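Field reference: sequence -> structure
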Amino acid sequence: MTEGKTDIKSLTLEELKAQMTERGEKPFRAKQVYEWLHVKLADSFDSMTNLSGKLRQELSRDYELVCLQKVDVRISKTDGTRKYLFGLGDGNVIESVLMKYKHGNSVCISSQVGCRMGCRFCASTLEGLERNLLPSEMLDQVYWIQKDTGERVSNVVVMGSGEPLDNYDNLVRFIRMLCDENGLNMSQRNITVSTCGIVPGIERLGEEGLAVTLALSLHAPSDEVRRNLMPVANRYGLREVLAACRMYFKKTGRRLTFEYSLVKGVNDNLREAKALAELIKDEQAHVNLIPVNPIKERDYVQSDGRTIEEFKHYLEKRGINVTIRREMGRDIGGACGQLRKSFLEKEKEG
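Structure field:
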């Protein structure tokens, strides 16, 4: 961000109206500007042709218009998944992924540059946390991809690099703006927020009056195994995390998703399946089994197909709703953090 300038794309319509009024402009001017930013997806003040030249100059002088820059895009030959690497104004890079399904286009966005959660199987966390993303930087991942494809984005998953609840205020503002009827007007029910289990954040989100889906990165049915995979489990045990999830369901009525990455020889045997079924038997939740994406810095290996199917079958026999996540973009490094990490490695070498 340029010092002294306001991030205009992170302002709500009401905030923009107040600022336009202070400038002596009519309130409808704010709605025009907001429409340019969040419906027409303008990338410059000069393109806002129904504003006077004077106002456009003043906006350019006083406001920063955050627009991501495309650094790289890779398109899967197997399923059409697109992985984007975007440059930010401060030189950092982030990733977003477009996945095409029969029910519509889903975009997985990043909420932070890097991550400090330290999950052992995730490439996003290897370089640590650089900084939080602004609401405008989160929105522009969706906007850029919608402009690039010419197709509407119908679902957004906040599951890319970063822990969304570690960037709480910007996350909630992003959700409200994405769902604003004066903007893209996306349904809150079409937004999923993934967390590794930050209990205070889950509890706060449950009180927001939102209808977004909460996805918990569970990954193990016991605190012992979970602590080996996810350092956050040293702070928040399963009992506390699941209690927060139950509260979230009670407040929102939204069925939870439990993400479970299967790691060969670590959490994929039937003993773990039995413990998992016992742990979540009374939860209003769906289990999403994820064949782990191997990264060279870790010695974790993906479970074989038969083991994954047996795990799924056991849960189903116990009456648990479960699916195996379809692997998207495997040939282009589709997992969180992989494209950014390879880019940073090349930068260091160069």
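Note: The radius of gyration is 21 Å.
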